[in-house]
User: Which sequence fits this backbone?
């Protein structure tokens, strides 16, 4: 009997599925990312004292394998049932984190939520990810609890909108030094290690980040899921334009 991945996702906000994609496809995707990074424009994001990972947005436009992953109905069915609405992949992000002893590097910057509302993602490890390779880190039970946020605010109009929606008016970004002081935090943090082809489906409104890499490289591709509506597509298009100009 297959494991009930939906129930696990509903209980914890995250589900890890080993051996989801075979090794040969993952290795092909790695080669595509490396080739793309040599010939096309890529983004190196550095923020909050960490980050510095290589990112390629809309990788499905350049890779049939990434396109197939974005259209995976098994995953879409799980994330749609979790949110009680039909979700579609709006874009695929290819990522590469490389150890460099001279800088502090991870994926996605410091601890954060993607938003204070549910945001579904499906990340696939294309390489073996051990503790030293910058594994994905996820704070369990952080859907309903919060910590001290960084001293930043949204733009004025966005701030008004969030107030109307009764959402926090400070972006959900957190300093690792603050997080480390939370009592019992080590037991709350799940570090997702796994072999090539490991799939991680998670709710990005829980607090998470990529751990700082201490050796080797970490390759991944990630589906970003949104409702299949004109408004949601317009917002994604606007976001992607800001990242690819």
Assistant:
């Amino acid at each position: 009997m297959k494991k009930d991945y939906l129930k696990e996702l509903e209980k914890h906000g995250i589900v890890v599925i080993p051996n989801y994609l075979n090794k040969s496809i993952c290795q092909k995707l790695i080669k595509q990312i490396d080739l793309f990074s040599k010939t096309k424009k890529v983004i190196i994001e550095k923020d909050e004292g960490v980050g510095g990972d290589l990112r390629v947005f809309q990788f499905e436009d350049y890779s049939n394998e990434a396109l197939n992953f974005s259209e995976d109905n098994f995953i879409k069915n799980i994330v749609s049932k979790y949110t009680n609405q039909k979700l579609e992949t709006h874009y695929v992000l290819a990522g590469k984190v490389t150890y460099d002893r001279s800088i502090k590097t991870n994926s996605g910057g410091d601890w954060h939520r993607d938003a204070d509302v549910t945001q579904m993602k499906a990340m696939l490890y294309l390489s073996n990810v051990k503790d030293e390779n910058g594994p994905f880190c996820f704070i369990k039970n952080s859907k309903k609890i919060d910590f001290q946020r960084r001293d930043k605010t949204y733009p004025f109009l966005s701030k008004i909108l969030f107030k109307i929606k009764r959402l926090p008016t400070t972006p959900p970004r957190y300093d690792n030094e603050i997080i480390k002081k939370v009592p019992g935090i080590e037991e709350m943090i799940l570090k997702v290690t796994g072999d090539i082809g490991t799939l991680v489906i998670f709710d990005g409104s829980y607090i998470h980040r990529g751990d700082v890499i201490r050796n080797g490289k970490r390759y991944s591709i990630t589906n970003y899921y949104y409702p299949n509506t004109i408004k949601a597509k317009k917002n994604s298009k606007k976001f992607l334009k800001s990242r690819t100009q």
Q: What stands out?
A: The longest strand covers residues 87-98.
